[in-house]
Amino acid sequence: MSRCARLLLLLALAPGAAACTEKVAKLHGSIGELYPLDFNEVRLRKQETDLVIDYLREVDRTVEKPCRLVVETAELNLSPPVEVTGANFAASVHLGRVMVNGETFPAIDQGELELRAFDFRGGGKVDGEFFVMFAGGRDLYGTFSGEVQEVVGE
After folding, report:
1. Which residues contact 10 (CB under 8 A, 6 or more apart)?
2. Residues 69, 86: contact at Cβ < 8 Å?
3. Are strands 93-98 and 62-72 parallel, antiparallel or unpaired?
4. How far from the centroid of its chain's Cα atoms is residue 136's Cα?
5. Residue 48: left (phi > 0), alpha (psi -120 to 50), or beta?
6. What average pLDDT does the structure give for the chain?
7. What's the N-to-C CA distance of the chain in angstroms?
8. Nearest alpha-carbon partner for 28 in 135, 114, 139
9. What is the pLDDT of residue 60?
10. 48: helix, coil or strand?
């Protein structure tokens, strides 16, 4: 079991876990003390060979992305379960935010991505989680699951 999976399991078993929302997708971690992580929905899209995972929320009729994960899949072995760590994570996974106020995350020290299901076509199922440690020691954990929307010409 990856470090990411172990940490998420521990958090799920922590006291008060029963009060968690029913969302399949989650974002949490100490980076939330500096940057809001709340969202309303998650959208998974295929753009050529990239998997784009957007956590979306609407603020005053503007859509913000408190977290955006872009996974360049061209150089990865994608037979589930897929674990992307170390140099592969740094080269293939990009994390960001699209916010009205221009906030961005700090630099990433390390990260892990696990894809338990990966049917990378329009309507296919993708299910996974990620862990990121930022410069300065803050962290971010995320889970996602859903059907892939294929984007053509964007």
Report:
1. none
2. no
3. antiparallel
4. 20
5. left
6. 86
7. 36
8. 139
9. 86
10. coil
Task: Give CA–CA dist 25/127, Å, rounded.
Answer: 9
Say how many C-beta atoms besides its own lie within 10 A of residue 115's C-beta. Answer: 23
Given a contact cutoff of 8 angstroms between Cβ atoms, the answer to whether 56 and 39 are in contact is yes
CB 62 within 8 A of CB 78: no
Query: Residue 57 is which amino acid?
Result: R
DSSP state of 82: E
The strand pairing partners of 46, in sequence order, are 51, 150
Residue 124 has a pLDDT of 95
Cis peptide before 81 (omega within 30 of 0): yes
For residue 97, what are the β-bridge partners?
none
Q: What is the pLDDT of residue 152?
A: 79
Confidence (pLDDT) at 13:
38
Side chain identity, residue 129: E
User: Which pair of tokens denotes residue 80?
Assistant: 């589930």
DSSP character at residue 62 = E
Q: How far apart are CA 66 and CA 105, in angstroms?
A: 10
**CA–CA separation, 100 vs 17, rounded Å?**
32
